[in-house]
Description:
Bound molecules: nicotinamide-adenine-dinucleotide
Oligomer: single chain
CATH class of the largest domain: Alpha Beta
Amino acid sequence: MIVEQIFSNLGIGPSLLSSGNLxxxxxxxxxxxxxxxxxxxxxxKAKTSNCQKAFMEWRKVPAPQRGELVRLIGExxxxxxxxxxxxxxxxxxxxxxxxxxxVQEMIDVCDFAVGLSRQLHGLTIASExxxxxxxxxxxxxxxxxxxxxxxxxxxxxxxxxxxxxxxxNSILWKPSEKTPLAALACANLFEKxxxxxxxxxxxxxxxxxxxxxxxxxxxKEKRFALVSxxxxxxxxxxxxxxxxxxxxxxxxxxxxxxAMIVAPSADLDLAVRAILFAAVGTAGQRCTSLRRLIxxxxxxxxxxxxxxxxxxxxxxxxxxxxxTLVGPLIDQSSYDRxxxxxxxxxxxGAIVTxxxxxxxxxxxxAFYVNPAxxxxxxxxxxxRDETFAPILYAVxxxxxxxxxxxxxxxxQGLSSCIFTNDVREAExxxxxxxxxxxxxxxxxxxxxxxxxxxxxxxKDTGGGRESGxxxxxxxxxxxxxxxxxxxxxxxxxxxxxxxxxE
Length: 502
Ligand code: NAD
């Protein structure tokens, strides 16, 4: 599907597609499909001021009314799911099912945030003083800077934006420079919802287009009360000190190196299906993609044989084709990193199956690969790195303690899972001595989370939690209020402070 057609389905004129100098390539063909205007430090400053002005107004709108705007955004997304999903596929290369799934995730988050808009609650706390009441009140935080990665070009924005909006904040969004079109399309749908809502301040959402220099400028800009950044661990390590230097808040969703432990009692049919979706789906380009298989030595040969057969049946190709399960890698640098990791693995004695470039004659400028399985005896530094491509390392284990140790022995801490039918193993895995990740599943793969839970990870994954549960608190500030309705002025801790005026 051509980009002009998709844009016209989204009600956007073609002029935006040739408006500037930033070339946008589709990973499907490697061809330039648009060139859009890049922001400058000056336009960022102006948009930040607009964002600040919008916040001063939006914070005063009652939260359930703010929820009404999010409900309307959800309606726009429902009406445009097919076109926006196709744009996500065109720009990021994920298969159409997953492109549509990403938009569905946005719709789900809208529904969640609408409900939340009537439930932003604080506590009432017992006061030690007679005739006093103590409580917590949650207030809007301020303008929120949102920086997103190429692989979830729209869903991660919506996790942040729908919550930030009902919490009373304005948003400035810097999408990945590799996927600006989906962001511009979302901004257009957002404006349609704003027009239907009537009365929202101007510039409640601002989009800025640019690379990491613009991201760094957002990190340094003190008017952003919160910078929510999604991307590689390297990005988080560069960005967090900039935000911390001005004592701002950051919410980090960084790289993962997700593992599955397959125990002797596991249902291997389920495990194979889960591995396939998690390891080869999205061409291994999910933060939660399965990268490490820790399999009991007694079943390793059987599982790997079954996996190799399953991998052989996976169709790699154009993500718009119905029977394709694996689309292209985002670009050549991603392909180069994959090949470098595989050649290092071979050098270190691993058995590598798959990983070859395919579809080269049809798409000479795009990078399609067969997903790879890398069998090794122990976990090495190569395996401890997140290579953002479909590489699944497999190592054997003999005891559960050893498996958990291998699972936790990486710097990232995003997602993890165990396949077992033994309740003791399952509980051990989820206990304090089990997985150290933000997500720990049983008999479900590490990827494809629902929006209702808090999403995020520990250690180098950054510690942030987004989307469901109580993640909304990230986007608000807390005030503790004590009200004295007595005629005395007792002091806390029983302090006596005679002034002579009692
Ligand atoms: P990336 O780190 O290259 O870029 C992500 C975003 O950060 C882009 O918008 C980029 O312009 C910006 N950026 C890069 N360096 C920056 C800097 N120093 N300061 C400010 N901004 C900067 O990541 P990518 O290649 O787009 O995405 C893949 C990575 O993202 C993987 O590591 C993946 O695991 C991670 N990811 C994590 C999550 C999560 O929720 N934990 C979700 C999606 C992707």
